[in-house]
Amino acid sequence: MNDARGTSTLASRTLASRVRRHWATVIPLLALVAVVVTWGQTLAPLGNVLVGLVLIGAVLAAVHHAEVVAHRVGEPFGSLTLAVAVTVIEVGLILTLMLSGGPDTASLARDTVFAAVMITCNGIVGLAVLLGSIKHGLPRFNAEGAGAALAVVATLATLTLVLPNFTTSLPGPEFSPSQLGFAAVSSLVLYAAFVFTQTVRHRSFFLPVPPPSKSARRKEEDDHVPVPSNRTALSSFALLIVALVAVVVLAKTISPAIEAGVAAAGIPHSFVGVVIALLVLLPEGLSSARSAIRNRMQTSFNLAYGSAMASIGLTIPAIAVASIWLSGPLVLGLGSTQIVLLVLTMLVSVLTVMPGRVTRLQGALHLILFAAFLFLAINP
Asked: Where is the chain membrane-spanning (predicted)?
């Protein structure tokens, strides 16, 4: 009886996998067509709605392909792949907008990076912790790995987003060229050191913690999906890149409609960057939530903190190089309200990762901080 039930479950899972693989192949290609058709076009309201639907489909497809790649290469390489892929495309979008000029682009890099830190460290972490604790009670993870990642995020954020307010070489919250160069090199060195630690020297710190009970471990083994082949993984990686490019470009395509809506509502223009950051980071948020539901809280932390690290560690060096061609000022220093939110986020995050296990209360804390960030971005 058990063998028959297991065979039926495996057959159902195989059929569902084939269906997901089919739509996950079609949607990125459809999104790529939408990118070509809408490139440089001013869309009508109906067009913005259709592009938005395709964008959401591309996000879901990106999550599927990221999970296929992650299952093939294993942790922590899977979460690292998604974080770096999203961030590289995000950096390309920031540079494109900044090089196009305009008075609103002086603080674009700062606003986007800070939004990414708040979204990942509060929104993604909070949602994952809440879902994981509701599903599994007291999810466990490696405090060594999560703590190391959080330390790098805190250092990078302070060096690049807080210190410009206190330097005196240039007036205002800006770095001088030499200071910007130092921040860029420091960001790259820290990020490279973390990746080496995560993938080589102390990889075990970043692997999911096995469930403590035998029944939970047995259920996890029963839910195990066969490892995809190299061909399937490479195909998924290519489609992942296509889907992520489509997400970023389509987000930029509908940004005029977002800007118009923000202006009509009387919300500060900087909130547009928050909305775009939310769209770009949606694949990581969904992957993190799914990992938490599967009792893989460490993977959720790898995704969240890895994305925050990559956002700073890759954006600042790219901006430093691009500053050679940028004619206007480059505002990096955060405002006083943002600094308070950043400090509070880091303090709460330390208390979250120290015990090596999380509860619903910690998830609620991070989500309240995320709500505070959104509220103050709308109503500063």
From this structure: 21-40, 46-65, 77-101, 113-134, 146-166, 178-197, 233-254, 260-282, 303-326, 332-354, 361-378
